[in-house]
Amino acid sequence: MNTPQDARQYAPATQRNREPILEVLTQVLPATGSVLEIASGTGEHAVYFAPRLSPRQWIPSDPNPLHRASIAAWSKHLPCESLQPPLEIDVRESVWMVEKEALFTTSPITAIVNINMIHISPWAACLGLMAGASRILPSGGILYFYGPFKRNGKHTAPSNAAFDQSLRAQNPEWGVRNLEDVVIAASRNSLSLLNIYQMPANNLSVVFKL
After folding, report:
1. 36 in helix, strand or coil?
2. Which residues, 6+ apart, have CB-to-CB distance to 159 below 8 Å?
3. Cα separation of 10 and 123, whole Å?
4. Which of 92, 95, 149, 158 could bond 128 through an S-S bridge, CB–CB 3.0 to 4.6 Å?
5. Mean pLDDT, the chain cut into blocks of 10 residues (210 residues total)
């Protein structure tokens, strides 16, 4: 019989990028409240960040049931009081689960974190994420992105150009996004660009504030 641990999935990139991401998160996240992670994937980031960013609550989510099973299995393997059970959230929906249920009244969501999603999803997912952040976050709330971006329509490294080509070959709706397009989409949802951090492996941390 399978145990929950069997559901754990592994993403090698999380081991490489989690420390640089944590360094930025400690600088930009509000000191209190809950952090909603959109597209948590394997859950490895969630179990690493949650204890290190306590007393903030960390709320993982993913639309993929296999990913949610992995998050739950990692949570059982590395338990943490501030790590919440994974939620099913598809950012393209007009109302998210956290808006339907008064689950987080004692620790309201003050930040949303999204790592390596918008280039491996349709542009509609980025737009949906912006809209949801605008609905959910309080004034001063933080929206954090991590991943590869183009700057002024151009790739920042040959490796990113090759990655972009491979993504578009898998799905024409995927691809490395132009940072300026993301900033425009954010501004249309009352989110202003706060800071950009250069990260390892030609990635960026992009921080918006409501």
Report:
1. strand
2. 201, 202
3. 26
4. 92
5. 68 90 98 96 97 96 97 95 95 92 74 97 98 97 98 96 97 98 98 98 97
Which of 94, 108, 106, 116 is closest to 141 using CA atoms?
108
Contacts of 169 (CB under 8 A, 6+ apart): none
Radius of gyration of the chain (CA): 16
CA gap 72, 60 in Å, rounded: 10
What does the pLDDT look like over 138-176, one tens digit per residue?
999 999 999 999 999 999 999 999 999 999 999 999 999
Question: What pLDDT shows up at residue 1?
Answer: 37
Distance CA 87, CA 63 (A): 8
Cα–Cα distance measured from residue 167 to residue 165, given in angstroms and rounded to the nearest whole number: 5
* pTM (predicted TM-score): 0.95
- pLDDT of 93 reads 96
Q: Which residue has 């992105």 as its token pair?
A: 145
The token pair that represents 113 in the structure block: 């974190």
Length, in residues, of the chain: 210
24, exposed or middle or buried, with CB in 10 Å at 0-12, 13-18, 19+?
A: middle
